[in-house]
Amino acid sequence: AQTVTQSQPEMSVQEAETVTLSCTYDTSESDYYLFWYKQPPSRQMILVIRQEAYKQQNATENRFSVNFQKAAKSFSLKISDSQLGDAAMYFCAYERPRETSGSRLTFGEGTQLTVNP
Amino acid sequence: GAVVSQHPSWVICKSGTSVKIECRSLDFQATTMFWYRQFPKQSLMLMATSNEGSKATYEQGVEKDKFLINHASLTLSTLTVTSAHPEDSSFYICSAAGSSNQPQHFGDGTRLSIL
What we know:
Helix content of chain A is 0%, strand content 50%. Chain A is mainly beta. In chain A, the strands form three sheets. In chain A, strands 2, 5, 6, 10, 11 and 12 form a six-stranded mixed beta sheet that branches. Chain A has a four-stranded antiparallel beta sheet with strand order 3-9-8-7, with no helix packed on it.
């Protein structure tokens, strides 16, 4: 079974600084997707970034970028120029291709990010 | 972008009543919908996966007679919590998936409080 581990229950960063959230996963598959979701106090799940395992290039979305190390099964999220609105719970997630039987999102435990002004 | 509407956003009811939560995909056809439960400061736990026109697949430990799921159309899935009790109080979130290459889209969640 696939597992996702986020070893940092809480992280804090100063506004305008950079922070990196860690995520590791375990799978025997070669084709899969990895995600970072943001959940602010409103509890809405917001997709931050998605990485396709067969793509070697790290995904980026404006201030958000990932460091995808497939062999190490590591998928960290870097937030640059942190803003107060970035404060939220961040979940790392794994998913096999949808056409695979039993495909579903597997979430990590989450990292609570605090942004200090 | 794709939108998933979930209603109600908050419901408070007495113990023993049944509560229905709706999840609608507004601008795409959702062949698969997922129902999650989330306790405070915890991660999302998948309860069941529903495919349009077929029975839902429940995760281990989730009572299918307690949490009834119907996915009668490509745009609507419902979760009914039957004979709800205080221990069923939680945050329930749905997500919908269209084509296999697109990520799941989440509803805004339903906060259920059973008195």
